[in-house]
């Protein structure tokens, strides 16, 4: 019997009390007529969100025929959500890319690997000759494997020597990374998913967990419906399924996280609800923080945020009464205004209350993509490998020694280039070669008309590695067919540091190849060498690559040195650090309340949260943190684009439960696509009424940059806010029922037609959650 996760998204409840082990429940889906006893199972984990649920892939006759949650895995205890259960069907979609494509006379035509790679290598040589390394850019993903990223990072940094290396994690969890570095010294989630089993209070800020981390929400629901349930405070402008379960729902005006969080801290301090001993012994920066937040009394904050002072006081009481507090932040913080500043305030609340490094106590600066943690750890997002500090010459020298290259070869003279800056360089013509792997920026980056025009330029040589001919691949000069999850072996790490292995269950279609192999062939083609003239890339297999990565993590926070492919096989995933001292992995960081803030050890010297100005070594040393966490304060300033008479609504965007991002996978899984086949726009019922819009009417939403059109859905969310999922690209996908319409009838539907080119000053994460728009009815 297969499980249903369309109508029953979270599955049946298994209520449990605080501290009790979360019961197991094994979710299975197999093709019609396939019996569990007849299939081979291959170990893996789900790649459709950062929870990283352990799952096995069912194979029959060399073909994927289903999946099953891994009962023994610490992350999900056997459960799977809708995407996990059905999303794998994309692998066997008939429109997978099966051979390289090369643009000839304006058209993409099939080509051999030899032809395509020769072109990529020749173009690289030409750009290196004419523009030098600064002509080269690489934009990768949070969805490949650790081994793919580590290899790409080595090639881009040590081989080519360009600082223009970033990933779509910039759109996703750059703020998580930076907020952790600012407060605790290095990246890495302090807590463990088991904290959700023990906590007595949950504080969710800009995180629609019920739809975006469905299995984690099932874990929370089992607590909410069990004995001694945790109390729940939710901050989200929309009435999400999470907000529906909240004791206090603060439906703030989008873009006002910072004043709210400042106000909550002011109330905690005023109410005597902080842990003064913890603050004195384990933090620095309290006096300034207390001074800054003292300007945020509940009345003022209520007016700025558009909620009541009474609700702010209630939220502060619930958080202040907690004995075991778990807080989470996600895109409602990271993609909104004052992103890093706000995320740091949630860290502060955790620290003020001394709620870290103990069971049931943590802050989760969550990830979204399944392998984003590895993008960061391997440095494929611009960071230096294994949480090394690019501003610290000793760290750079150490990495150079490990890679056997000259220090000067590693670009550390300037901050790593973030993707929006790379797009600007491409627009100006200084970047002439861009390799996009595992991401679809023609739908997911802000201000799409601009991104399309940049990617379309003749003078830019665009290489795209993907499994499908995406909107971005369609603009490429060379398209490389990628083998994806289930078709290649590798490892990845979820949002509580759990490392999983994912086996090759089936062969990739046609000539598709794993990204690792593609990158290795590129390095070989370019003849990249270390300083002794030996090949720069020293591995030939994923496992050898993993072993090389382990060696560079030894002694760093993300220490993988105790892990092997074999250790990851058979049981549960294992949490890093895993080394000689902690051979079975480490459940929680900072249990001794010593943080990674020693100036010589930290990953970043920190920033001014308002301007983004980077601190230097001396500024960091002057803080005197030396193992204490850093309380960072910031005042609120109004957002970039206020509403106006002409554009009176605030547009925000995000996800719904059945689709993943630009739907390249979930749009190809029948159950998921049928559950949400077409786009829509959410309006508050009162706003719709005032505009004469009824449920299902076609509406036109317009910003200063572009417009989209989709049927209206009326909701109970806050007035003045308009929401659209960002899943639907600028053309209707082939498999959409709507695509039978003629080209003229197709409508722009991507949220990013409306969004603006703006980013957080610290994390450089694009601010896609906030734009002023007008709304009007097109037709009933
Ligand atoms: N079903 C599904 N699940 C996914 C994904 C997916 O595409 N589909 N993607 C995965 C990835 S990569 C990510 S990053 C995560 C994202 O997971 P989430 O962050 O939970 O998802 P979003 O819908 O982007 O945004 C969360 C909420 O932010 C709110 N919001 C908007 N503006 C503000 C604001 O100014 N302040 C506050 N407090 N809230 C605001 C929105 O109303 C929305 O409900 O999901 C992961 N899981
Ligand atoms: N307006 C708005 N914009 C947003 C967001 C939002 O909330 N609102 N959210 C942002 C966030 S958090 C994120 S994470 C991004 C996501 O944006 P994208 O990264 O563009 O999202 P995906 O559609 O997941 O694209 C990933 C691509 O990688 C391919 N792929 C999958 N596995 C592999 C592999 O192993 N190898 C290779 N080579 N390719 C592979 C898939 O087929 C797919 O085409 O969007 C961001 N943009
Ligand atoms: S919660 Fe995330 S990792 Fe788990 S099954 Fe769902 S999409 Fe996959
Ligand atoms: Mo994301």
State the helicity in percent bands: 25-40%
Can you tell me the CATH architecture of the largest domain?
3-Layer(aba) Sandwich
Strand content: 15-25%
Total number of helices: 27
Number of structurally distinct domains: 3
Biggest pleated-sheet summary: 8 strands, mixed
Mean pLDDT: 96
- CATH topology description of the largest domain: Rossmann fold
Shape: globular
Radius of gyration: 25 Å
Task: Please write out the topology.
Blueprint: E1 28-30, E2 40-45, E3 54-60, E4 63-69, H1 82-86, E5 101-104, E6 107-110, H2 113-130, E7 136-140, H3 146-160, E8 165-167, H4 169-172, H5 174-184, H6 195-198, E9 201-205, H7 209-212, H8 214-224, E10 231-235, H9 241-244, E11 248-250, H10 257-270, H11 276-282, E12 283-284, H12 286-293, H13 298-305, H14 309-321, E13 325-329, H15 331-334, H16 339-352, E14 362-365, H17 372-378, H18 393-403, H19 419-428, E15 433-437, H20 441-444, H21 448-456, E16 461-466, E17 478-483, E18 490-493, E19 498-502, E20 513-514, H22 515-526, H23 542-553, H24 565-568, E21 574-575, H25 617-623, E22 629-630, E23 649-654, H26 670-675, E24 681-684, H27 685-690, E25 698-702, E26 707-715, E27 721-725, E28 771-779
Parallel strand pairs: 7-8, 7-15, 9-10, 9-13, 10-11, 12-22, 13-14, 15-16, 16-17, 17-20, 23-27, 24-26
Antiparallel strand pairs: 1-4, 2-3, 3-4, 5-6, 5-17, 18-19, 19-21, 23-28, 24-27, 25-26, 25-28
Helix pairs in contact: 2-22, 3-22, 3-23, 5-16, 10-13, 10-14, 10-16, 13-14, 19-21
Bound molecules: ligand MGD (2 copies), iron/sulfur cluster and molybdenum atom (MO).
């Amino acid at each position: 019997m297969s499980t249903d996760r369309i109508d029953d998204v979270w599955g049946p409840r298994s209520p449990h009390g605080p501290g009790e082990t979360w019961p197991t429940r094994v979710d299975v889906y197999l093709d019609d007529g396939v019996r569990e006893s007849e299939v081979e199972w291959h170990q893996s984990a789900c790649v459709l969100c950062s929870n990283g649920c352990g799952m096995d892939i069912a194979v029959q006759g060399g073909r994927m025929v289903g999946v099953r949650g891994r009962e023994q895995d610490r992350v999900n205890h056997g459960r799977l959500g809708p995407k996990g259960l059905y999303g794998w069907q994309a692998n066997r979609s008939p429109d997978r890319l099966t051979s390289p494509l090369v643009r000839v006379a304006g058209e993409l035509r099939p080509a051999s690997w030899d032809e395509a790679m020769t072109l990529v290598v020749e173009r690289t040589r030409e750009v290196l000759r004419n523009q030098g390394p600064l002509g080269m850019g690489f934009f990768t993903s949070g969805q490949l494997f650790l081994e793919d990223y580590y290899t790409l990072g080595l090639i881009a940094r040590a081989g080519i020597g360009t600082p223009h290396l970033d990933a779509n994690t910039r759109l996703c969890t750059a703020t998580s990374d930076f907020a952790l570095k600012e407060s605790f010294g290095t990246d890495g989630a302090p807590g463990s998913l088991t904290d959700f089993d023990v906590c007595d209070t949950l504080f969710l800020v800009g995180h629609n967990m019920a739809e975006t981390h469905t299995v984690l929400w099932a874990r929370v629901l089992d607590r909410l419906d069990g004995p001694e349930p945790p109390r729940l405070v939710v901050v989200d402008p929309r009435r999400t399924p999470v907000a529906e379960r909240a004791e206090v729902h603060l439906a703030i005006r989008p873009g006002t996280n910072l004043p709210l969080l400042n106000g909550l801290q002011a109330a905690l301090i005023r109410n005597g609800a902080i842990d003064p001993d913890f603050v004195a012994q384990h933090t620095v920066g309290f006096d300034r923080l207390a001074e800054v937040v003292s300007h945020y009394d509940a009345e003022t904050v209520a007016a700025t945020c558009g909620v009541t002072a009474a609700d702010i006081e209630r939220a502060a009481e619930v958080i202040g009464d907690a004995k075991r507090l778990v807080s989470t932040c996600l895109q409602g913080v990271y993609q909104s205004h004052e992103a890093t500043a706000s995320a740091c305030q949630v860290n502060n609340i955790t620290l003020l209350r001394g709620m870290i490094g103990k069971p049931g106590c943590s802050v989760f600066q969550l990830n979204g993509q399944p392998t984003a943690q590895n993008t960061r750890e391997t440095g494929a997002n611009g960071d230096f490998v294994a949480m090394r500090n690019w501003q610290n010459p000793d760290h750079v020298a150490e990495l150079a020694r490990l890679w056997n290259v000259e220090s000067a070869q590693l670009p550390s003279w300037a901050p790593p280039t973030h993707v929006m800056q790379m797009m600007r360089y491409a627009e100006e013509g200084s970047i002439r070669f861009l390799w996009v792997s595992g991401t679809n920026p023609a739908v997911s980056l802000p201000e799409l008309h601009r991104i399309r025009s940049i990617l379309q330029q003749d003078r830019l040589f665009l290489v795209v590695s993907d499994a499908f001919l995406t909107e971005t691949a369609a603009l490429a000069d060379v398209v490389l067919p990628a083998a994806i999850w289930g078709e290649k072996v590798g490892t990845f790490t979820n949002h509580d540091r759990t490392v999983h292995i994912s086996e090759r269950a089936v062969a990739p279609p046609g000539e598709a190849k794993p990204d690792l192999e593609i990158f290795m062939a590129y390095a070989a083609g370019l003849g990249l060498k270390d300083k002794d003239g030996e090949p720069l890339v020293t591995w030939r297999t994923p496992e050898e690559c993993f072993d090389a990565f382990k060696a560079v993590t030894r002694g760093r926070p993300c220490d993988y040195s105790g892990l092997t492919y074999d250790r990851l096989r058979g049981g549960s995933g294992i949490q890093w650090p895993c080394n000689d001292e902690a051979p079975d992995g480490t459940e929680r960081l900072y249990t001794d309340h010593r943080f990674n803030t020693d100036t010589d050890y930290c990953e970043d010297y920190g920033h001014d949260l308002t301007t983004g100005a980077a601190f230097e070594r001396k500024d960091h040393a002057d803080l005197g943190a030396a193992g204490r966490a850093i309380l960072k304060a910031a005042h609120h300033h109004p957002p970039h684009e206020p509403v106006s008479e002409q554009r009176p609504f605030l547009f925000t965007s995000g996800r719904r439960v059945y689709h993943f991002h630009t739907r390249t996978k979930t749009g190809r899984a029948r159950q998921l696509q049928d559950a949400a086949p077409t786009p829509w726009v959410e309006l508050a019922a009162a706003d719709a009424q005032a505009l004469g819009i009824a449920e299902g009417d076609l509406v036109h939403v317009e910003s200063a940059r572009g417009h989209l059109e989709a049927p209206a859905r009326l909701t109970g969310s806050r007035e003045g806010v308009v929401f659209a999922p960002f899943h639907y690209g600028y053309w209707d996908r082939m498999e959409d029922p709507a695509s039978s319409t003629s080209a003229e009838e197709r409508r722009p539907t991507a949220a990013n037609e409306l969004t603006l080119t703006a980013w957080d000053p610290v994390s450089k994460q694009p601010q896609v959650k906030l734009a002023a728009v007008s709304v009007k009815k097109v037709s009933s």
